[in-house]
Design brief:
91 residues
Length: 91
């Protein structure tokens, strides 16, 4: 059975979006690595609970505004934040 051209085109769009998503995540982690280095230099804790809380609230609002499931967006952001904290602890 052959795959419809429309499906192939949609898959190409998904692949391009996935590439953009991971490029952005890589850029984000480069910046957070710099934050971790600066925190270490300034003897600040790896985790900033107040900042995380504000970020999670912002993500929840953004998810709602863009039609994403806010609970899913919070889980995704929590995963990202946990990775950042681990990165900061290793600085």
């Amino acid at each position: 059975m052959s795959v419809p051209a429309e499906l192939l085109a949609l898959r190409e769009q998904i692949d391009a979006l996935d590439q953009q998503l991971f490029v952005l995540l890589a850029e984000r982690f480069k910046v957070t690595a710099q934050v971790g280095t600066l925190k270490k230099q300034c003897q600040l804790p790896a985790q900033d609970v107040a900042r995380e809380t504000a970020q999670l609230q912002k993500i929840q609002r953004l998810a709602s505004e863009t039609g994403l499931d806010p609970d899913w967006a919070l889980r995704l952001q929590r995963l990202i934040l946990d990775q950042v904290v681990m990165q900061h602890q290793q600085c």
